[in-house]
Amino acid sequence: MGLKVYINGQLYDKADAKISVYDHGLLYGDGVFEGLRSYGGKVFRLREHLDRLWKSAKAICLKIPMTMDEMTQAVNDTIKVNNIQDGYVRLVITRGSGTLGLDPNRCSDPQVIIIADSITLYPAEFYEKGLQIVTVSTIRNHPAALSPRIKSLNYLNNILAKIEGMQAGCVEALMLNHNGEVAECTGDNIFLVRDGELLTPPVDSGILEGITRDAVMELAREAGITVKEKTLTRHDVYIADECFLTGSAAEVIPVVKVDTREIGDGNPGPMTLDLTRRFRELTRR
Ligand code: PMP
After folding, report:
1. CATH number of the domain encompassing residue 163
2. Atom 2 of ligand 1: nearest residue by CA position
3. pTM attached to this predicted model
């Protein structure tokens, strides 16, 4: 049996799961999404993802045509029907099919899409040895233009940065904000360790409020580590003892080189390894 995709309350075979070419999600990137993980058939922090989805939708004046409880049920049903244990869920709400003009009021009905599948973002080797990343010249969206807190279908800012990173031979890239401060990577939040403290840019630096980021900060605090949300510069990254990234798809992944500078001794550091272990335990609880 092939993969089933949920669209507006119905399940379709993957090959038949289609939406209109007039959908403003396609025409203009007008919509919002979430990427979630399931572990042992249970979605990790589903409520937090739905809260963020609803907030993203609110910010773009998009009304999600169902309740959070109905969405919870739909996500769980889609995972179940596809027999997903450890997998990845993509939740997409588009503006719906409309006319060939920007006006969102001329779109008929938002489309709710749920894809439950598997994902391998990076090869296992990167988790063991750590990533090498570069800072790219594409800055993160100015919050007054398109807030990075909105997880919108318009991901070109991140894709352009990713292309730059890949051209430099890296699978992930560091993005600065409009003030030249460290923001985040193209699909992951960034953390540094310095003098035993865990540092990460605040939301004000123009980042997505990552759910994995929140989980890791909680775990660190539980472990007695001082956690600071602090404005960071590239210099802070270069002189850090450790660096790692977090994201639903990436989970926790060490970074060992940034712009050709070795971070710490060039190996994944002890706090990174400890928090990785704690995160794994949390997801398997
Ligand atoms: N920043 C960006 C730009 C992202 O796309 C993601 C992945 N959704 C993250 C950070 C990490 O967020 P989360 O931990 O909620 O997946």
Report:
1. 3.20.10.10
2. 187
3. 0.97
